[in-house]
Amino acid sequence: MRAVNSPNTPPVSSLANPIAELQKQVSASRLNLFHQCRLKFMFRYVLRLEKPPTPALHVGKTVHAVLQAWNLKRWRKQPFDNERLKELFNDHWLALQEGHDIDWEGVENLEKDKAWKLLEIYWLETPIKANEMPEAVEVLVEAEIRGQPKLVGILDLVRSGGRIVDFKTCAQTPNPETAAYQHELQLTCYALLYRHATGHQESGLEIHHLVKLKAPKVIITTLPPITEAQVSRLKKAIDSYVQGLDKLDFVPSTGLHCSYCEFFNECRNWH
């Protein structure tokens, strides 16, 4: 095993405790990052190197926070209007920047306008009616899986009848088939969590993509309940995660994603 040895990173011998904690529970985000690039996983979750959020990440977090507030108001049967939602948007836009030095490169106002337009077009085109009562909003769920770490996750939204919804912002129009495959691990995690929490099978899953184009649009990908094959693949992915942590198997997976990775410089010093 080869690891980073630089002035900014501790030796491998100091990784034991973080790794023990990581092996106790697993989430979709940890699994996805581990299988995307194990070295990036080490930087983020083992060495816990902190990086300022990118403009795209800030936009995504702000949009997500406002959608959460919108869903919670429907769940609580509270009135809401466009003016109040705009106030919430402005509040989140500022609050989520506190303590972070985001490199906007002079386009913060432009990005802010794009983010609000994304929300406006979503509320116009969403299949979710204003009077539809959610089953759950932003709920933390845990599931004990025999022989594996505890599975944890936060469900963005569960629509009436057990339809799980995940919100995503992106810069390009997604291909529904590709999107379903790219997010399979995450959606399978959410479905298993829902089943453990309720004792019922989900009625289906939805990915709601809010696409940041000059003319923003909403793409809804609807999927059936997960299959036993998908559950099996998830469990294999978790086994690989545990085994990789046992071996301190942190190696880079180079590719196009390296060009926008926040740990690019750290990765170049890996040896």
Task: Give an account of the 3D structure.
The protein is an alpha/beta fold and about 270 residues long. It is built from 10 helices and 6 strands; from the N terminus they run αβαααααβββααββαα. β2 (about 135-145) and β3 (about 150-160) form a beta hairpin. α2 (about 30-35) packs across α3 (about 40-45) and α2 packs antiparallel against α8. Mean pLDDT is about 90; it is low at about 1-15.
Distance between the termini: 10 Å
The CATH class turns out to be: Alpha Beta
Report the total helices: 10
CATH architecture: Alpha-Beta Complex
Biggest sheet descriptor: 6 strands, mixed
The number of E-state strands comes to 6
Instruction: Indicate how many domains the architecture comprises.
Output: 1
Task: Report the β-strand fraction as a percent range.
Answer: 15-25%
Brief sketch in words of this structure:
The chain is of the alpha/beta class and 271 residues long. It has one domain: Alpha-Beta Complex (Lambda Exonuclease, Chain A), CATH 3.90.320.10. It contains 10 helices and 6 strands.
Keywords:
271 residues; alpha/beta; Lambda Exonuclease, Chain A; six-stranded mixed beta sheet; 46% helix; globular; disordered N terminus
Helix-strand layout with pairing:
Layout: H1 16-24, E1 25-27, H2 28-36, H3 38-46, H4 55-75, H5 82-95, H6 108-125, E2 136-143, E3 150-159, E4 163-170, H7 176-182, H8 184-198, E5 204-211, E6 217-223, H9 228-246, H10 264-268
Parallel strand pairs: 1-3, 4-5
Antiparallel strand pairs: 2-3, 3-4, 5-6
